[in-house]
Amino acid sequence: MTDPAVPIGRTRARAVETLSLDATETRNALSAALVTGLADALADCGEDPGVRAVVLTHTGTTFCAGADLRDPPAPEALVALLRRIVELPKPVVARVTGHVRAGGLGLLAACDIAAASAAATFAFTEVRIGVAPAVISLPVLPRADPRALARYYLTGERFGPAEAVSLGLLTTAADDVDDALAPVLDGLRRASPEALAETKRLLTARVLETFDRDADGLTALTARLFSSGQAREGMTAFLERRDAAWVV
After folding, report:
1. Which PANTHER family match (predicted)?
2. Catalytic pick from 126, 163, 198, 233?
């Protein structure tokens, strides 16, 4: 059973470690505890020679609802988690069968390969609560098509798996995500661990350049926006299930 203080489930099969976001009561929102627990689990996987690859998935109908508005992580902690996924010397594969919102899309973009089922939905909802998708832009913008992404960043609209593939946020979408991932995981199990690490380093170089250049500024922007009056109104409206004062 998952320790409620560390809401990350862990299983292993044939050298693939599965980490499951397991805080269904908060829709796997990015709380301080979840961010810390996931970062620690990833660090363990990175150091374990018995782990060839990591699958990041979830319990419940939501992969991740974004930041936990009642117990948000420090922006620096979220940056460190996203960077850990990108820098991990093992491939990280996202397996999504539910909803992904806001900060959850940062997790998705940080992964090397991402697959979703037809039931998945996606939205950058930050603008609707008075903030911006700042920190998560570190992995999102280098991976995705910025022209196509602009619509969803600016409107907070919901979109589906096919659109997520076309944006570059997903590798693949399928009715059965496990069928889609079977050949991927087989390929990773057949690959040399050193070759995987060096190949991942090639693939993530541009993403890490973005972290090096922009992390401090985007962390400061996140902190400033979350302390603003519009963010307080937006988050209050969200928790009270009403429109924010600026909705016209």
Report:
1. ENOYL-COA HYDRATASE, POLYKETIDE BIOSYNTHESIS ENOYL-COA HYDRATASE PKSH-RELATED
2. 126
